[in-house]
Amino acid sequence: MELLSTPHSIEVNNITCDSFRISWAMENTDLERVTHYFIDLNKKENKNSNKFKHRDVPTKLVAKAVPLPMTVRGHWFLSPRTEYSVAVQTAVKQSDGEYLVSGWSETVEFCTGDYAKEHLAQLQGKAEQIAGRMLRFSVFYRNHHKEYFQHARTHCGNMLQPYLKDNSGSHGSPTSGMLHGVFFSCNTEFNTGQPPQDSPYGRWRFQIPAQRLFNPSTNLYFADFYCMYTAYHYTILVLAPKGSLGDRFCRDRLPLLDIACNKFLTCSVEDGELVFRHAQDLILEIIYTEPVDLSLGTLGEISGHQLMSLSTADAKKDPSCKTCNISVGR
């Protein structure tokens, strides 16, 4: 039987966090003969790869020949924001069950995308299931080292400046390495109603009245839900003043929450006053997208321990946790 030509001119497009569309060129004489495609997909490992992450297997897909382009989805456990290389081979299945195959095409590299809004909505639904009851709170707070606040006063006009979010949390989060903001906490101890005296981030704490950052002029977005091989879970929320750069970034990428009625963080009017509540059973990480004036709050030293084990700096998400993972990637 006449040999098959080698596929060439590979094109990969319509890339999402868990799928892509691929096409290639082959000789006209092969079009009617080819019965199967072999697609070899390999993840490009790098030194920062999560060594606990599941291996992607198998790497070779055998597919019946269909008109090109073809969509590859669900054949592998594709990870979001991950570089892959792909090559193709065509084949004719013969009467004895063996394959006559072409040579392998050139290798093409591509990178999968972030979670889309529908994937984040799935994460949101999972987070809502364990959020627990809502507790009242009155301040947002940020813990850090004394030098951090001294630098803000001396070199930043007494302002806490937004900085780029690290890669902690879900690998597919569209905020990682893209959104600028200032991180705050709001969780309280259920028995005192006050912020805890321990912190993984430093002995100094800036507290600001909740209404300074969260009010009817603020949009609230759900950004992520994850854990770090622990029993407790984290939820990342974004507070963005309406119409701000951060708001415009989030509008196209993250689910918008009703500030008065959601399972995580609420701001509602009761007896003519703004009342704030947070979910009891989640550790909330709040990203405020604009600079924050230190003169709007108070700065002081806390009395507790520095619990470094609770730090989420560049923390890798547990890919095996059934509570906080969805089926399109980790």
UniProtKB/TrEMBL annotation:
SUPFAM superfamilies: Fibronectin type III (SSF49265). GO terms for cellular component: cytoplasm. InterPro entries: FN3_dom, FN3_sf, Ig-like_fold, PHYHIP/PHYHIPL, PHYIP/PHIPL_C. The keyword Glycoprotein applies. Residues 6-115 form the Fibronectin type-III domain. Keywords: Glycoprotein. Its interaction with PHYH suggests a role in the development of the central system. Interacts with PHYH and ADGRB1. Belongs to the PHYHIP family. This is Phytanoyl-CoA hydroxylase-interacting protein. It comes from Erinaceus europaeus. The gene is PHYHIP.
